[in-house]
Amino acid sequence: MNRHNRLLLLTLPPSHYCERARWALDLSQIPYDEERLAPGFHILRAKRLGASTTSLPLLVFPDGSICQGSDLILDWVGLAGGDPEIEHRFERQTGPLIRHCLYAGLLSDPQSGIRDVLLRVSSSRQSKIGRLAWPILKPMMISGMNARLNVLPDLITKVDKELDWFDKLIVERGDCLVANDFGRADLTAASILAPIARLQNEPIHSISAGIQWPQSLVPSLARWSKRPSLEWVKRIYASKRVC
Ligand SMILES: N[C@@H](CCC(=O)N[C@@H](CS)C(=O)NCC(=O)O)C(=O)O
């Protein structure tokens, strides 16, 4: 039984997949509580709920049943305007690539602020333990994802290729990717690209607020910000991401 008697969304603070699920719930005006978990604690929480993997987002229903993964959460919400091919690419290729690229830059720079962003969680106890454990957690994250500076140039090239693809798609399809209404495919693309868009007015303050972008990433982020893809993400967030 979920003691809140409401939907509970379990998230990792800077995760763009978690933002995808959160945005879908917000857009559909479905009431829920959010529990932001510190890395490590999320594993215990997901296992205790009987989830098949430890990945978040995970939606817990009042009766204790769960729905894991942003895709299934969007299915449950029932958002219209999906495009399975575009969403599949964002979920399986663009999303992991962006995460890998950003962590390779951010975890290599002690001044980046990524520790504090990861530990902006619901429980102050988890936050305190996370800070104490950071000297162990950080190398585990680096080796788990191979998030090292030496792989960054190759990842940046691959992000450029993803943006080439999406720039072209936007030019072909216009501001709405499917039909004439903002929908599931738009929400998916915007949320997955959000971490590299350096949003100024990010309503939920989870993705990049508090990050000091390292020099290893700044020139690429500046270049990407002028691309149609990221201009589009900024427009979509400004016009559609209302909490
Ligand atoms: N395909 C999944 C991917 C989710 C995902 O990769 N979540 C990451 C955060 S960005 C995560 O929970 N990583 C920690 C773990 O797997 O234990 C979805 O759409 O929800």
Q: How many helical elements?
A: 10
Provide mean pLDDT, rounded. Answer: 94
- Helical proportion, percent range: 40-55%
Q: In total, how many beta strands?
A: 4
Let me know the largest β-sheet: 4 strands, mixed
Low-confidence sequence ranges: none
Proportion in β-strands: 5-15%
Q: What compounds are bound to the protein?
A: glutathione
Number of domains: 2
The secondary-structure class comes to alpha+beta
End-to-end distance: 27 Å
Reading side by side through the largest sheet, how are the strands ordered? 2-1-3-4
Shape: globular
Give the ordered list of helices and strands: EHEHEEHHHHHHHH
Radius of gyration: 17 Å
SSE arrangement:
Blueprint: E1 7-11, H1 16-27, E2 32-36, H2 41-48, E3 58-60, E4 66-68, H3 70-77, H4 84-106, H5 114-118, H6 124-145, H7 152-173, H8 184-193, H9 218-225, H10 228-240
Parallel strand pairs: 1-2
Antiparallel strand pairs: 1-3, 3-4
Glutathione is lined by residues 12, 15, 17, 43, 54-57, 69-71, 91, 99.
